[in-house]
Amino acid sequence: MRRTSRKLWRLAVGTITIALFAACSTSPSTSPQNSVLTQPEANAVAEVVTTDAASLAGGATLDIASGLPFDVLPMPGAPALPGSSVSCTPTRSPSPVTNSDGDPVPDSVRVDFSGCTFSRDGYTVALSGSIDLVDPTPTVTDRAFRTRSNDFTRTVTNSTAGTTRSVVENGVRSIVGTPDQIQLADTMETDYTFATKATASHVRKWLATFTADQAGSIQIGSPLPSGNLSVSGSSTWTSGTNNYLLAVTTSVPLHYNASCSVEPRFDSGALTIAVTKGTASTTVTIQFTACGQYTVTRTMA
Questions:
Q1: Which of helix, strand or coil describes residue 76?
Q2: Which of 67, 129, 258, 279 gets the highest tally of CB atoms within 10 A of its CB?
Q3: pLDDT for 101-126, tens place per residue?
Q4: Model pTM?
């Protein structure tokens, strides 16, 4: 697909408010070209940015045995499902894998999720595509790993509401960590399909830091403990005829609560998004108030 040909480094059940999703729309605005985002457009940007921020936390550690992120589908409003709940077995190649340094990360393995489906808590999930898991330091025993998503797709259907959303990810994520802290570099493209069938593309270069609440509690090959996530970086957003430049920062660190049962697993904190469209700009603030709940406000610059 076209995304894999891009030079990605060039850019270097749920309690979420139902009205928020009902308001999400990526239809072109009828306002003048120099206007700021409408509230429905701001809601749509927030839904995707929140999904990508939650994906950072979900992908900060991996189930080395399966190759799955421990948080398998961090989509707002969906149940927080660990990778261990997936009832299908992805295909790993080569087999057996090579692990030159004996740390938990193999030298290089591709995990193919084709045909992976499962259901839980009123949601049906289908996974497809693949993730390449690589040890960037194959002769050094450490905690570093790198993943490349190749059309890694999560399609999530809410059986009660009869709605389906999907996320297709392409790109590279690099992780270097200690028992106290993880550094992440994220150069990814997310192609998002909303419950309304509208679509959007978010191409980003983000840097993030996760710091555990309890020192020494981060273990490679184990789920992420509770802690604070800080994110910064730039991205481009495209939906229909709308094209935006985004600059994302955590004005208040996002507190990742490992015990949350609904996505996103942030129970406090705020993301601030400076959005530029043509000559106009606005600020969108995503305030996380509890597990699976957030509000979206916009302020004209």
A1: coil
A2: 67
A3: 888 788 999 989 888 888 878 888 88
A4: 0.84
